[in-house]
Amino acid sequence: TSLQKETIFGHPKGLFILFFTEMWERFSFYGMKALLIFYLTKYHLFSDDSGNLLIGSYAALVYAVPVIGGFIADKYLGFRKAIIFGGIMLVLGHLGMAYEGNAATQSMTGEIVRDNFALQVFYFSLSLIIVGVGFLKANISSLVGELYVKGDARRDSGFTIFYMGINLGSFFATIICAWLGENYGWSYGFAAAGVGMFLGLITFISGKRFLEGKGESLVPELLAKTSFGIKNEWLIYGASALSAFFFWQMVQSHEAVSWILKIAGGLSFLYIVYFAATQLSGKERDQLIALTILIVFTIVFWALFEQAYTSLNLFADRILDRNVLGFELTAGQFLSFNALFIILLAPVFAWLWVKLGKYNPNTAVKFSIALILVGLGFGSLVLGINLSDTGKVAAFWLILTYLLHTCGELSLSPVGLSAVTKLSPVKIVGFMMGVWFLATASSEFIASVLANIASIDTSNGLAPDLNLAKQSYMKLFEYLFYTGIGFGLLLLILSPVIKKLMHGVDKELNN
Ligand code: GLN
Question: Distance from the CA of 493 to the center of ligand 1, in angstroms?
Fold first, then answer.
């Protein structure tokens, strides 16, 4: 019908349904995440170490489950149904987060008494979010790819627009939820995140007619059939919802998450090898290999980048002079600079790639630039700390970090999402998108272990000594500076080989 053919800014209207849905989903996701380390360390009196590791476990599961969510969508539900189910889980999870119970107290002898019931509600809420993101995140990205036929030159810019939606959500979330949470009470910040997700769900459900029938199940008969007297579709929802109980336990154990990541990574790798060996040949096989190598390098990128929600957030709270142009920002609000720079620079980068024409770097080179930039971002903080003398570090340096990190992100993330939908065989796009996020999952885990290099003991309840604290952040940032640059150079050396394996998809990628 004419409705479905209508475009806005030259893109299918469905893109904007996905844009606003993902905007609200990320609003809820980042609003909550911005508060997490402070909620844990200041309200439940977690140590830096255990707070970082909990965030690492949670975030790792959040990004690991999309492999399963992607797989189930490819094989059974289709993207649309998976997204709705994920959205419902997310609304419930964020609402659960708004229950905070009692603050932990510390006795004179240093013993900490925590509200265990509140903590269990909290862990269960996290697990609902894990299942929710698992069904929503990768699938909504795959659905963006489905809006364009193969070879459609608008695909890359479609992803750029979509990526701006992600960050529009993140921008408002880190300003509003961080402000509410840090100033008025954690519940307010978390509840605001839940309201956002609810709006996202409504947006998606009401926008169905613009999706041109895309993202539907490939096996509707199978879904409609019954097993054990229940419709298969409902069995899938039921089993998936019950898996929240499993993640409820997992999120509380860093060890367990480490195993899940190793097993999921290993199995995914074997499946890719099996699929490439039995179902693909020639060009298609090469392209899948190229994609897999690129994905491995994203692990390093995100492990550095994701310091934002742990070490960098605590750094902003403790060591940063948070005055920006006369405004005193909360620590969490600094996260909004990443999103702000994405929104401002995404169109610039999209334009730049086109403008560079035949000098446009191929995807592998772009990824290596990203790694170098994320390393340089930490260089900015090393410099900032060095120049701070005995006082706090000027806000400028952290803002510069986010600027460099954002430029890196723009050379890797939207380009990468688009590459996934082009380099993977159609039958496993959902799964490969899941693998893309599985790499982020490992990064989140590694990031939290790295963040612990700079953890500070605040168990005596006193503000940490500024100079000692600076030294431990310095150690971490120096290390990350060299890591980013080292891996960036390595990838640069490998890039000609990867380019060959892509067989010109790259040309089209840079349209
Ligand atoms: N910030 C982006 C998002 O939320 C990328 C996250 C990631 O892949 N690590 O979608």
Answer: 26
What pLDDT, in 10s, does the model give residues 168-203? 999 999 999 999 998 999 999 999 999 999 999 999
Nearest CA to ligand 1 atom 7: 440
DSSP letters spanning 163-189: HHHHHHHHHHHHHHHHHIIIII-HHHH
Query: Range with the lowest mean pLDDT among 91-95, 100-104, 143-147, 154-158?
Result: 154-158
Query: pLDDT-based confidence at 158, cuts 50/70/90?
Result: confident
Can you list the alpha helix ranges (DSSP code H) found in 147-253? 155-179, 186-206, 220-224, 232-250
Query: Ligand 1 within 6 A of 302 CB?
Result: yes
How far away, in angstroms, is 211 Cα from ligand 1 center? Answer: 23
Of all protein residues, the one whose alpha carbon is nearest to atom 9 of ligand 1 is 440
Q: Is 440 close to ligand 1, i.e. is its CB under 6 Å away?
A: yes
pLDDT score recorded for residue 15: 94
Tell me the ipTM for this assembly. 0.95
Q: Render the burial of 306-341: b for 16+ CB within 10 Å, e for the rest.
A: bbbbbbbbbbbbbbbebebeeeebbbbbbbbbbbbb
What share of the chain has pLDDT > 90, as a percent? 74
Answer yes or no: is the C-beta of 448 below 6 A from any ligand 1 atom. Answer: no
Tell me the best of 413, 420, 445 to mutate to test the pocket of ligand 1, counting ligand atoms within 8 Å of each CB and taking the most: 413
Atom of ligand 1 minimally distant from the CA of 436? 8
* Residue whose structure tokens are 């996260």: 335
CA neighbor of 291 nearest in space, from 443, 447, 506: 506
Q: Closest residue (by CA) to atom 5 of ligand 1? A: 413
Alpha-carbon distances, residue 342 vs 105, 256, 267, 304, 433 (angstroms) = 40, 34, 34, 17, 21
